[in-house]
Design brief:
The structure holds 3 protein chains of 3 kinds.
Chain A lengths: L1 E9 L4 H14 L3 E6 L9 E9 L11 E6 L2 H7 L3 E10 L13 E5 L1 H8 L5 H13 L4 H12 L4 H21 L1
Parallel strand pairs in A: 1-4, 4-5, 5-6
Antiparallel strand pairs in A: 1-3, 2-3
Chain B lengths: L23 H15 L5 E5 L7 H4 L3 E4 L5 H11 L4 E7 H7 L1 H9 L5 E6 L29 H4 L5 H6 L4 E8 L3 H19 L4 E7 L3 H4 L3 H15 L3 E5 L1 H4 L1
Parallel strand pairs in B: 1-2, 1-3, 3-4, 4-6, 5-6
Antiparallel strand pairs in B: 5-7
Chain C lengths: L3 E4 H11 L4 E4 L7 H13 L2 E4 L3 H13 L4 E5 L1 H16 L4 E7 L15 H5 L10 E3 L4 H18 L2 E7 H5 L1 E4 L27 E2 L6 H21 L3 E4 L6 E4 L2 H16 L5 E6 L1 E3 L3 H9 L5 E6 L5 H9 L5 E5 L8 H16 L1
Parallel strand pairs in C: 2-3, 2-4, 4-5, 5-7, 6-7, 11-12, 11-14, 14-15
Antiparallel strand pairs in C: 1-8, 6-13, 10-12
Helix pairs in contact in C: 1-2, 1-6, 3-4, 9-12, 10-11
Classes of the chains: A alpha/beta, B alpha/beta, C alpha/beta.
Chain lengths: 181, 249, 357
Amino acid sequence: MEEQVLIAGFGGQGVLSLGKILCFAGMKKDYNVSWLPSYGPEVRGGTANCQVIVSDQEIASPMFEASTAMLIFNEPSLHKFEEWARPGSAILLNASLIASPLTRQDVRAYYVPASELAEQAGSLQCLNIVMLGAYVAACHTVDEETVQAVLTETFGAKGEAVLQMNLRALDLGKTYIQTQK
Amino acid sequence: MAKECRRPKALTDTPFHYCPGCTHGIVHRLVAEAIDHLGIREKTVGIAPVGCAVFAYNYFNTDMLEAAHGRAPAVATGMKRVRPDNIVFTYQGDGDLSSIGCAEITHAANRGENITVIFINNAVYGMTGGQMAPTTLLGQVTTTSPYGRDPKDSGYPLHMAELLATTRGAAYIERVSAHDVPHIRKAGQAIEKAFRYQMEGKGFSMIEVLSTCPTNWGMTPVQAMQWVKDEMVAQYPLGVYKDLGEKEA
Amino acid sequence: MAKILMKGAEAIAEAAIEAGCQAYFGYPITPQNEVPEYFAKRMPKLGRTFLQAESELASINMVYGAASAGVRVMTSSSSPGIALMQEGISYLAASRLPCVIANFMRGGPGLGGIQPSQADYFQATRGGGNGDYYLVVYAPATLQEMCDLTKEAFDVAEQYRLPVMILADGTLGQMMEPVELGNYVPRTKADMTWAATGFQGGKPRSIINSLYIQPEELEERCLAMFDTYREIQAHEIRVEEFHVEGAQLIVGAYGTMARIVKSVIMQLDQAGGPKVGLVRPITLWPFPQEAFAKAAAQESVQAVLSVEMSMGQMVEDIRLAVNGRKPVSFFGRTGGMIPTAKEVREQILALCNGGKE
């Protein structure tokens, strides 16, 4: 098993931290992980993306040619990365911000109203965790309990309210995918 | 007290290579006397520059480093930060300190590095054969200002003591001269005070010493001493430019 | 100790701290700013020294000062900053001062860009500054390896009394991987009585110096350095060989580039493609000449390929090592572009098929 996840959106949407949470979850399951961010002068307000690999093998290159899963947070990222998706792989889109549908027909597309669900959970800030919930339900690389444990470690220090909001966001994302099936 | 006539312990038994009439030897002795007097020879680390004093490590009987041109204050910073109990001094000429090393000296002063800087200002590059320095006087003839230093081409004499005195980090800045006995005595007192400030943890100090270069000035030793007195002191006024003293430092 | 997920630029700093690095001097430059930032947070709490210098010139000379005192000291930068440090590095090498210098290479020349590159290979492996000297140059490929080599670098620097360079690239600085720390096993502590720390204990006067005005004396000094270099060549060469035996093509690559090549080799292997081997220098100086010579000498090998994030620098060392036994070709991209797996695969297949027919 080698999951190659591309996560892309605007800087500030939690794209890079979502990648890290995915790594932490993979590590909890004793997988090898790597996290490779785009970097440049355009971090704030520009586009941000990261490549995350979760694998039961040695990870040779931290860069991959085609993703097995893609989490796309905004329209420019969709146009930039759509062709990266491996045939048959999953693309999860933040449908709240992406108006145009996928042009690719050979992938599994999940349109998640992530911004709305995040606000429903309590704040637009947990947009990335909604997407993570959707990913967990769609791809099963890491299970929900493991991700919950990571969220508890990540947000625990920020207080119970923040943690609960993120757990709600995770659940809303997951439930959305499950009810769409 | 009986007068002693002997070599300070902080100088080695190596004859100086300096030219007749050059004041480097005098200033070396003043530094060594201060080190002896304060009893710090065994914990002193000196840093030699690039310039005529490049061989200073042969003369000072302390641990010595030889630094790259202009970088002595950075080297001193590295040494002092990891060995705060050592007494660290740099000995730099005007090309080294005021030209190529202007950034290093300014930031060391501004950080208030607890080091002592001995700055030899003789208005010329000595070792390389008498080229113009930032401290060269207006109209002064050097091998690279053969028609006399013209401010339209080469700007004005740089006043390092005044400049560094504007940094908040500096504790003690004084300009002295080595052109006659009374002034040499005063210079010795200033140098010792600068070392004492370091021992007391007061921070950065620099003593600028107006010095001679008879060889490159084309003068006899006596003429050179007179030239410092008449021309250099007029351009570079002597005195204390900053002294945080006992209380403020 | 459990593995922790760390960014490369932070992992190298933590590894240095574990190895007893007492002082770090640096100046901001992308893509390695997390190194000074991490030291800035950690060092004061450990009672050690962090100082942001006014320039890279000052950083490397502060390193010179601290190294003269015999403490473990480090600086880091990225290509243009390392270029500025070359004067100081030459002085450190000539004065036989141990220290560790990390270069997270970015695209050049000039101000260049900030994306990953390997274009400082010549500079790093040929000394870099004026005069006859070398550095030991490590080229880590993973963050774990970068941590382990950094710790070892301090030992090697002290053992042989020279500056050691960790030659990484922007990717290794910016990416995250789990690393295991706390496992440092130091080498035998080197003699440090040469350090300039004053006369305490009646030790002889220390002079740290690189000026030798008599050519006979300077030559003698250089020859002694080269005795050390030969010793290093005999004992410190490190190389990874992957699928080399019986390979049709040998690829040489280091650092991040070697990871991409390895991925391609694994893919080709799974797909039943041509048999390709990787020789990955871990020390770029001393260069693993023998490994390349032996790999290329195999009857099965038809060609050797150097793949770089530069315009063909390591390929020269590979050519010297292979010494005409097999054709050596080059593929690389530059300016911050990284050869993709697809491009590397195409190069490999072209060479393999060309070899067959």
